[in-house]
Amino acid sequence: MSSSAQQAAERVNRQSLGRNEMLDLVREIIGSQPILTAFLAIGLGYLVGQINIGGFSLGVGAVLFVGLAIGAFAPKAQIIGPIGLTGLIMFLYGIGILYGRQFFEGMVGVGQKYNLLALFACLAGLAVALGLGHIFGIKIGHTLGIYAGSMTSTATLQAALDVMKSKDPSIGYSIAYPFGVIGPILCIYFMTRIVKPKFPAKAQRFQMGEILIGEGHDGKRLDELTARALSRVQVTMVRKNGRNFVPTADTVLSAGDAILVIAEQNEEIAKAAAVLGKLESGRLASDRADLDYIRVFVGKASVVGVPLAKLPMPAGFPTHILHVRRYDADLVPTPDLMLEFGDRVGVLMPPDRKDDVRRHFGDTVKAAAEFSYVSLGVGMVLGVLLGLVPIPVPGVGVVTLGIGGGPLIVALILGKLRRTGPMLWTMPLPANIVLRNFGLAMFLATVGVNAGQPFVRTVTESGLTMLFIGGAVLLTPVFIVLLVGHHVMKIPYDDLVGVASGATGNPAILVYSTKMAPTERPDIGYAMIFPSMTLVKVIAVQIVGLLMAGSSAG
After folding, report:
1. pTM listed for this prediction
2. Angle at the Cα of 72 (from 66 to 75), degrees rounded to 5?
């Protein structure tokens, strides 16, 4: 070999050694710094999750796969301690607080039918997982993980990890998870193409109108008219003798007076006007000499979580809540409506009292991210304690609601209560979203990094088989809900896709469902189904795990 060739070979060797040393150094840093590893998985995971292919992206789910890649790259990397479990509790607590009211409303009426359909579908998916896992000789830990991943249920994964006492469920979960997200979306897409449902245009839920009182109602009290012609609308302001004022129940109306009314639909205002007189705009809203209008942010805990009928208003001058703006929707201020942090409230009051109204409600935009850490801490403590309570199952053993089920149940109850004396349980939607997403990201990063090495080994050995089982498991509940729900139970389509989203679980599926059925019903269906089916899955995998452990011991 010539000297020049030998020198070139030495340079290549040195460069190769340099790259290997650099990689070894990176592996050593990742392997010895669990906090760094967790946030590396979260940051890169969210970056990968933003990649959109044909309208599909993994979102926060990409954190799991980046975590797996990091765990495979750095074998010593382990995120130890309660970081992942803390994240899971944050996620489930946020879900429960947000959907508590809708969940309990779903336990009566049509919600019972929807929950029974979802229950049958989810248990059928578990039966398919166990059957195919047995046929193909898949370990029970992997099988339970496949079921959890197909249902994209982090709480179910944690229950499987607890009962199996190994990382096997994490591996099955990781393999099945991608199809658990994209599979229901594809099914809903094709179902929508076949059914071609029609939906009415989304109507604004706040309408306002001015009614001129006719001769036939001269001298009548407002409470008399409210019981009949005005039963479907609210009277917020009256104009009499050229002056505007906030009315009371005993206000007497005369022919030629004008009233400002609000309702959820224009048709209700039109019906009231047809009975009382006629619609005539411009008499009230243009005159602000006696009553002015101001929008303020809700920023004080004392006015949050209290029904408007019981809400104390500033004393010493007339005020009236005209409307409530919550995020991107205008709401009619019904007596049972409760204000939340970050709401914008439209208030009628004397022009010189604006500062008093601002002080009364708080009026700060920072309220959109405010919530009580005291209630958060108390709620999570109660949830963890409930998850520890043993539940004896005859012939099986003892199961618990676990770190997933306990906090979820407590949060659902607290979300329904909303407030207990001075303790406010709810939180603004922006804060809830941050809490849930960060918690879920922490949990997925932990699971992914810790399962990285065994994941690579298992995929090499039986990855395709497990992927096939995951697909079959996922399609079983989706087909049952969509086909039985549509053709047999005749469930309205926007309700149906909400039930399918709740049964399978991933929020990305719900987002897609609302695109296919642009009404509020998919959100309501998801809220009724997701919490109850999460509990069903959590308990079911524990029962199966205990039964399998018992049979192995026998």
Report:
1. 0.73
2. 130
